[in-house]
Amino acid sequence: MSISPENELENLEGNHACAVAAIAAGCRFYAGYPITPSSEIAERMALELPKVDGTFIQMEDEIGSMGAVVGASIGGVKAMTATSGPGFSLKQENLGFAAATEIPCVIINVMRGGPSTGMPTRPAQGDVMQARWGTHGDHPIIVLTPCSVKEIYEQTIRAFDLSETLRVPVVVLFDETIGHLIETIDLSQTNNRKLVERKWASGPQEGFQPYAMTEDSIPPMPRPGDGYRTHITGLHHGESGFPTQDPGQVERFIQRILGKLDQHRQQVESYEAFECEDAELLVVAYGITARAAKRAVKQARAKKIKAGLFRPITLWPFPETVFCSLAKGTKAVLVPEMNAGQLNLEIERHCSDSTRVIPINRFDGEPIAPGQIFEKIQELVSK
Amino acid sequence: MKEFEIRFSGSGGQGLILVTRILATALISQGLKIAQSQSYEPTSRGGLSRSDLVVSVETADYPLATALDYLLILDELAIGVSDDIIGKGCLIVVDSERVSSKPKGKYKVHSLPLTSIAQKLGSKRVANLVALGALAGLGGFCDQDTLEKATRHHAPKGFLDLNLDALRAGFELSETLPPSQISNK
Amino acid sequence: MIEENIQRFDIRDYLRTHLFPHFMCPGCGHGIALRALLWAIHELGISKDKLAIISGIGCSGRTGAYIDAHTIHTTHGRPLAYATGLKLARPDLEVIVITGDGDCLAIGGNHLIHACRRNLNLTCLMLNNETYGMTGGQVSPTTSNDRFTTTTPLGNYEPVFDACALAIGAGASLVGREITMHVTALKDLMKEGISHQGFSFLEILSDCTEIYGRKNELGESAEMVLSQKANYRSDSYGNQVDEPFKPRDITTGILAKNDRVEYLDACHQHKMSKLQKAMNT
Fold it and tell me: CA of A275 to nearest chain C CA: how many angstroms apart?
């Protein structure tokens, strides 16, 4: 809230930025259930949606919220929910339905300490693997992980754009620290953006195949009321949309929904590479931890230590090609995370034997400080 | 790039987040960028509460406080809590009536009768604004005029005059303190 | 009756016959319920293009796929949640939920009571066959006393849920029950439920012949349907359900109806009155 009208700068909380961005992205439906530390998103949506003729509903539980979001999206309305660990667990089955039936939707998970009820008001990064593998079966999913209020705004909009165009559920994953952080952001450049719309079915209704293979692997979606009268089911289905147990059809179906993220990898992947070109020591971090890592890398560079930061913004699918090229030839990769070592596993998978992968873990409800990372960098260099 | 870091600490219900917001608004109106974070216990009244601002010209690389330049301690509960991140030469203001001990270490500490000044103005609940005025006056990180504008923006309706009086009283108080008196050695 | 003006009902106009043979067992009551529903839709003149059928998991859940409309076969217990989202997003659609006793009362019970409370304009058809047929015949919240199922090998001793009493208690603005024996009455009840402005909950007593019927030696499907009639009390078009747990004491017809304001109407009225207030001040 700026004092002078000509000033476009605003101090905005991360969770509020998320809600404001969703509205800007064209979100017109929100269903949720109160949970710390994400409730401010619901509260802001409740305030904003009526202004744009959208719908807000507080459902009876987390499961119902996810169901309602998918239902609304089937109706053709951009839809979102927000939650935290325990609620994210409850949403997984309906999230899997959205992945299998290719219904666009955005799920915000503001991470708190876990497992179980954990530490509701303290930050953590413990849902990295759940965000990837939370629902059962092989399924496509995109996970974006912003590290600032500005980036929450940008990535929430991007989440809608990716979800709508690729017909994949998108999770925006950030920690409580970022969710409750208030930062100055400039919203003046974000106005008047062109809304991204999903590809709607058009053309003959007779013989329409709602899950037909297309060149881009993304079949156009039939809108209820447009005369296509198709079937949507969480059962494995053929191109017709009806259930099948035919091995050939099932294989083609799974291959297509998994393959579409590979096919559109360039659009999906995003990352920041800071001082990576000549780096001998790479820090891989995301969320609030990445900001600590950036300061640590700056401190290291000031001491002529060749350190760099690789920050995946798209956490899943992990931007592995670019990471591998940057990690090649480095002596060590440091992976600070506010969990017991989750992304670390993915990093180990992509590093050759000559590169040491060293985790820095913290799960006591406190963020990893820049000093903690810098000390580790110094320790490694002095060895 | 880093300008300064400030923490308002005390107990829940003392209006620490409100003064942080007022200061944040004042600072961005001067073209600075802020990162505000807070921590409180799951009760609306009582329990340790703190609210931080990291102020910079460009967006801060790390948005959480790591070396405080200014610290307010409005309740005994908050003593010791910030010890790990008090920066060199930190200016500390403590409420002389609510805080009996003093932070350990070589800091500039002012023990000021914030609560009784607030009480004289009409309500001890505006001790937060007295503190803000005193800290800003001593630290010089924000001028009175800008803070008054920001206070008008954020102060609860019906309490604006009281809040402004408290802020001014804080600035006045700071002017009475000679720099030589303030060292805690 | 106005029905003279309506084109003769041919069920094939409303079915995806290319999916036949269907999955239902011989004698299953769900087929009768499906026919009654399509008949009701026909007589109400609802366009298939504007019709969305949302179902959950189980035998009831699979029934929707045969309807030539926009059909959505969701997750277990959640069709009411999906339907709530769809109806809120698209009030222009006629949204009908097909669910079962396990889907609706056990795993999805929370959604049912809140759908009743909200009174959003949905129609919920609960096909009650007293068992989890799809999974092989386990006990459900509506399995009658002493009945054998695969998980009550000594007979069921748990109290039986009266779904209609639950729906009335939770505030559904139209609650009714019918047996598949009465196809015409069932069709008429469905018409009433679908036309009703608000949340309608209809319990349809349907028979699981192959699994539940066999296990309990209830006879062939004809005998089971007839036993519905034997248990049916002619004086029971009453307006209330006085006891929550009253197995096999079947009251049919409309059990409760009120003109409580519909959810979206309430939402609209509320918004308007706030705007009015804002303009007056």
Answer: 47
Mean pLDDT of A191-215: 92
User: C29 lies in which domain range?
Assistant: 2-280
Rounded to the nearest 5 degrees, what angle is found at the Cα of B97, between the Cα atoms of B93 and B98? Answer: 80
SS3 C182: coil
Q: Closest to A182 (Cβ–Cβ): which among B24, B66, B149? A: B24
Taking the C-alpha atoms of residue C45 and residue A369, their distance in angstroms, rounded to an integer, is 66
> Pseudo-torsion of CA C9, C10, C12, C13, nearest 10°?
-60
Q: Do C71 and A231 touch (CB under 8 A)?
A: yes
Contact predicate A350/A312, CB 8 Å? no
CA distance B50 to chain A (A): 13
Q: Is pLDDT larger for residue C158 or for residue B1?
A: C158
Please report whether residue B12 resides in a domain.
yes
**pLDDT of residue C276 exceeding 90:** no
The answer to whether A150 contacts chain B (CB < 8 Å) is yes
From CA A68, how far away is CA A61, in angstroms rounded?
11
Note the ipTM here. 0.96
Phi-psi label, residue C73: left if phi above 0, alpha if psi -120 to 50, beta otherwise: beta
What does the pLDDT look like over A114-168, one tens digit per residue? 999 999 999 999 999 999 999 999 999 999 999 999 999 999 999 999 999 999 9
State the residue range of the domain holding B40.
2-180
Physical contact, C and B (3 or more Cβ pairs within 8 A): no
Domain count, chain C: 1
Q: How far apart are the first and last CA of chain A?
A: 50
**A72/C81 touch (CB, cutoff 8 Å), yes or no:** no
pTM of the model: 0.94
CB C100 within 8 A of CB C128: yes
Quick one: angle between helices C79-89 and C109-118, nearest 10?
Answer: 30
Q: What is the mean pLDDT of residues C136-162?
A: 94
Structural domain of A185: 9-190
In a domain, residue B174? The reply is yes
Q: What is the DSSP string of C119-158?
A: T-S-EEEEEE-SEETTTT-EE-TTPPTT--BTTBTT---S
Instruction: Single out the residue of A41, A84, A36, A92 nearest to residue A63, CA to CA.
Output: A92
Say which CATH number the domain at B60 has: 3.40.920.10
∠ CA C281-C267-A105, nearest 5°, is 120
> What is the percentage of chain A residues whose pLDDT exceeds 90?
93
Number of domains in chain B: 1
Counting the structural domains of chain A, the total is 2
Bridge partners for B5 per DSSP: B54
Other C-beta atoms lying within 10 Å of the C-beta of residue A383: 7
Last residue of one domain, picked from the residues A190, A207, A233 = A190
CATH number at residue C206: 3.40.50.970
Res C239: pLDDT: 37
Residue A17: inside a domain, yes or no?
A: yes
Contact A309, A286 (CB under 8 A): no
Instruction: Find, among A233, A55, A103, A229, the residue nearest to C94 by Cα.
Output: A229
Q: Do A33 and A143 belong together in one domain?
A: yes
